[in-house]
Amino acid sequence: AQSVAQPEDQVNVAEGNPLTVKCTYSVSGNPYLFWYVQYPNRGLQFLLKYITGDNLVKGSYGFEAEFNKSQTSFHLKKPSALVSDSALYFCAVRDWLRGGADGLTFGKGTHLIIQP
Amino acid sequence: DTGVSQDPRHKITKRGQNVTFRCDPISEHNRLYWYRQTLGQGPEFLTYFQNEAQLEKSRLLSDRFSAERPKGSFSTLEIQRTEQGDSAMYLCASSDKSWGPELNSQETQYFGPGTRLLVL
Predict the structure, then answer these.
(1) Between A and B, how many residue pairs show a Cβ–Cβ distance under 8 A?
(2) Which of B65, B47, B64 is nearest to B56 (CA)?
């Protein structure tokens, strides 16, 4: 079975500071990893994904994520936070062995609050 | 460029009533997914379609739930005899055509705004 853990319910960062939102995963085979962002009363917006290759993945709005196989982690990062980055962030995983048959498995989400 | 749309955006119903939600995927996306999201949780997979074929159903999808995608375009999700525990956000997502199981897993899913259901 595949699973995702987002250990922090909430992350508070001052505007202009770097931010990190943590994610760890568990799969049987090779993982495909995704980050989505959700604004109030809206659906999920895709930020970035890791499939293979370079462990550092760059995505939308200046976000990036680093895949670490030995630590089974896929932390989301941004060098300089903006107040508009405040939202709910979800990490998700898929196991390639399942062939896409079971959708994405999401973490519980992390509230990111950027303070002016 | 139109994204995934869902209708209605909000639905309030009384326990025991039937409700139906509609999802219109991104044009020409052949895979369509339904998820359920409860407060404080991430979305949970319910079912998915490749074209008009429903290929997988989660154990979360009880026999009161039924989904269809009759022409391989829009999809409907019906809940019969609603219960208070059905109150949640129902999300639809679609993804483009891919080839082979591994590529299916790599695809990016694009989500609609969701339908928020409240069962009284």
Answers:
(1) 80
(2) B47
